[in-house]
């Protein structure tokens, strides 16, 4: 895969996407969002890829926000389309991807950067990471799902504080709030992500895809997550992964899941 603003590395069933705009602190512009969508789409269609890690280039930033120069003069209609298209193209798309996505937050994750991290299935951070949604300091609100996903992760009160103050929180505070799962030194971040990816990759990719659907549906208006769980649980019984997993268990050996 050849891209202008991102790098994609594939090795042993693991793909790593690196947002590579270091001079802009990896800020998201329309081209980068489109490239990320294309990369995620291609990797999700590759059955050999079991886990995707996304991170930023350098040691300063995961993604320091959106590229404000692209929308500073937008109209009301253009602003609404910007949010709608961005959510559909990248943020909702990543959240509902059947391949697990780990965000390795290696520095500033602000605005659209934090929204991208929150759309991933879970997050880990380096100890120098700083996270926040500063949009109200620009006279706007988070538009890529931030007002919805942040309360789900840290609770309504903490989310309201973060959004209304436009302040940043440290990696440790993010961990204590449930925003990230682990905090490690910068040099340990990618090795930890790879270790977690390895643990995930040993399990059934088919079952993991079903679990992602069931968990996500708990947070969707008008959708009964319990019903999704029942349906996906039943569907698992018709898969080759289920046959292999149960057979391996009864035979007291490690399973070799065929996957999709």
Commentary on this structure:
The chain has 260 residues and is of the alpha/beta class. The chain has two domains: 6-201, 2-enoyl-CoA Hydratase, Chain A, domain 1 (Alpha-Beta Complex); 205-250. The protein has ten helices and ten strands. The strands form two sheets. The protein has a six-stranded mixed beta sheet, sandwiched between helices. Helix 3 packs across helix 4 and helix 4 crosses helix 5 (156-165). The chain is globular, with a radius of gyration of 19 Å. The chain starts with 5 loop residues before the first strand and ends in a 10-residue tail after the last helix. The mean pLDDT is 96.
What's this model, at a glance?
With 260 residues, the chain is of the alpha/beta class.
By DSSP (H or I, 4+ residues per run), the number of helices equals: 10
Report the helical percentage: 40-55%
Oligomer: single chain
- By helix and strand content, what is the structural category? alpha/beta
Overall geometry comes to globular
| Computed Rg | 19 Å
As residue ranges, the low-confidence spans are none
The portion of residues forming beta strands comes to 15-25%
CATH architecture of the largest domain: Alpha-Beta Complex
CATH superfamily of the largest domain: 2-enoyl-CoA Hydratase, Chain A, domain 1
**Could you report the average pLDDT, rounded to the nearest whole number?**
96
Number of strands: 10
C-alpha termini separation: 22 Å
Give the CATH topology of the largest domain: 2-enoyl-CoA Hydratase, Chain A, domain 1
CATH class of the largest domain: Alpha Beta
- Give the total of domains: 2
Please state how the strands of the largest beta sheet are arranged side by side: 1-2-3-5-7-10
């Amino acid at each position: 895969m050849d891209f202008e603003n991102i790098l994609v590395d594939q090795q042993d069933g693991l793909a790593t996407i690196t947002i590579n705009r270091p001079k802009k602190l990896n800020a998201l512009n329309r081209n980068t969002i489109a490239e990320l969508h294309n990369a995620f789409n291609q990797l999700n269609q590759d059955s050999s890829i079991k886990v995707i890690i996304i991170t930023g280039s350098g040691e300063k930033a995961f993604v320091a926000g959106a590229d404000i120069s692209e929308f500073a003069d937008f109209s009301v209609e253009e602003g609404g389309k910007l949010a709608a298209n961005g959510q559909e193209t990248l943020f909702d798309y990543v959240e509902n991807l059947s391949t697990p996505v780990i965000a390795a937050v290696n520095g500033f994750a602000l605005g659209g950067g934090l929204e991208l991290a929150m759309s991933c299935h879970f997050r880990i951070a380096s100890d120098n990471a700083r996270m926040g949604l500063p949009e109200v300091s620009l006279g706007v609100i988070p538009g890529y799902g931030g007002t919805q996903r942040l309360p789900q992760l840290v609770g309504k009160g903490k989310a309201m504080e973060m959004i209304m103050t436009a302040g940043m929180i440290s990696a440790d505070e993010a961990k204590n709030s449930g925003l990230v799962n682990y905090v490690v030194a910068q040099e340990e971040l990618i090795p930890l992500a790879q270790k977690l990816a390895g643990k995930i990759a040993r399990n059934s990719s088919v079952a993991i895809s079903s679990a992602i659907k069931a968990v996500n549906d708990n947070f969707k208006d008008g959708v009964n997550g319990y019903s999704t769980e029942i349906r996906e649980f039943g569907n698992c019984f018709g898969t080759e992964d289920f046959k292999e997993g149960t057979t391996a268990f009864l035979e007291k050996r490690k399973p070799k899941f065929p996957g999709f």
